[in-house]
Design goal:
By secondary structure, the chain is α+β, with helices and mostly antiparallel strands. The protein contains 3 helices and 5 strands.
């Protein structure tokens, strides 16, 4: 199950998004949208048959866009703590207060929001060991070098695996998201 592989459950991401929207409204936002996401992965690069890099990543972030009428501000953070969430919303509100009015700024009409979300079948985790990724990268590079006898050098070959999940929500009641790999 996807939620067992991530640091946060989808419900936790939904709760953070809703907390941001609720706080923004309490602080005077006329509308708001929020995105909360996290992901992790690895990348292995081989060049001339030798391992050049092995990289691991794990990231998370949240962003909020607030509207004060036709003024808009945006802020983001990678800190999911309640205080950081409030500080991020406050920063977006502060930015909005100093922006020019934009007649085109705002959320879509409520009847244009999706309510049903088909399963797009985008999540297929691949538990690829580093050793296996190295072998695959070597095979890929060797295939490229073997395609033509005139090829003697390459920029290398990289094998990446990545998993992510996100939630997007707005103050009109829209909330949706999905995991992907």
């Amino acid at each position: 199950m996807a939620q067992d592989r991530f640091s946060n459950s989808p419900d936790t991401l939904r709760n953070i998004a809703q907390d941001m929207l609720d706080y923004a409204k309490r602080q005077g936002a006329t509308a708001a949208s929020a995105e909360v996401s996290e992901g992790f992965g690895q990348a292995v690069t081989v060049r001339q048959g030798e391992v050049e890099t092995i990289e691991y990543n794990r990231d998370k972030g949240l962003g909020i866009t607030v509207h004060l009428g036709q003024q808009r501000g945006n802020a983001s953070t990678s800190d999911f703590s309640p205080q950081a969430v409030r500080d991020t919303v406050d920063a977006a509100l502060s930015i909005a207060r100093y922006t020019a009015k934009d007649d085109c700024a705002g959320l879509p009409e409520e009847d244009r929001l999706a309510r049903d979300f088909p399963d797009l079948d985008l999540y297929h985790p691949w538990d690829l060991r580093v050793e296996d990724a190295i072998c695959l990268a070597r095979e890929c590079e060797q295939a490229a070098l073997g395609a033509d006898a005139r090829i003697h050098n390459s920029e290398g070959a990289t094998v990446n695996v990545h998993e992510a999940q996100f939630i997007f929500a707005n103050s009109l009641g829209f909330m949706g998201g999905y995991p992907s790999s």
